[in-house]
């Protein structure tokens, strides 16, 4: 008489459930901490280093803020309810956010290198048509710098160039997490 052996943990589990190993938790933690580190560095350069961000710099921060929230949700999902579809979806959302940010950063770097025009909100505010315009400009306080002038370079890359690399790396990490999460199943499924 032959017995059919069912591996433990697979009986009654839905196809969406699978084994979510510690490697996915580490990927989620690395992604979340990476996004926090990039934003922390940007805020540090601004508030401690005195580098004023331009309009495009500020726009590039928004996907990071949302990605940090997605990363926290991802860590919570992995901790309490590791449904592989939910985990894969959260990783995919994080990857899309970082791809969008990398695109913004490449666009900004292109504006700095004068490959293309930046948006009107990035134009320098030095043009004054009359004395009244000059007085109004003085009364408005400090203006954000132009997006066309990189205020800092390291190894030939500006803040935008480094952000393009970092956001691309985080996008690849999150995409890898999405593929791993979607493909994770127990042997019996």
Structure description:
The chain is mainly alpha-helical. It has one domain: Up-down Bundle (Bromodomain-like), CATH 1.20.1550. The chain has five helices and two strands. It has helices spanning 22-47, 55-80, 84-112, 131-139, 159-183, and strands at residues 153-154, 157-158. Strands 1-2 form a two-stranded antiparallel ribbon. Strand 1 (153-154) and strand 2 (157-158) form a beta hairpin. The radius of gyration is 23 Å and the shape is elongated. The relative contact order is 0.20.
Return residue spans where pLDDT drops below 50 for at least 5 consecutive residues. 1-18
Round the mean pLDDT to the nearest integer and report it. Answer: 74
Order of helices and strands: HHHHEEH
Q: Can you tell me the CATH topology?
A: Bromodomain-like
Named at the architecture level, the CATH assignment is Up-down Bundle
If helices are DSSP runs of H or I spanning 4 or more residues, what is the number of helices? 5
Strand order of the largest sheet: 1-2
Helix content: 55-70%
Distance between the termini: 25 Å
> How many distinct beta strands?
2
Domain count, please report it.
1
CATH top level assignment: Mainly Alpha
What's the gyration radius in Å?
Answer: 23 Å
Large-scale geometry: elongated
Structural class: mainly alpha
Brief summary of the model shown:
With about 190 residues, this protein is mainly α.
List keywords for this structure.
189 residues, disordered N terminus, Bromodomain-like, elongated, 5 helices
Summarize the SSE layout with pairings.
Elements: H1 22-47, H2 55-80, H3 84-112, H4 131-139, E1 153-154, E2 157-158, H5 159-183
Antiparallel strand pairs: 1-2
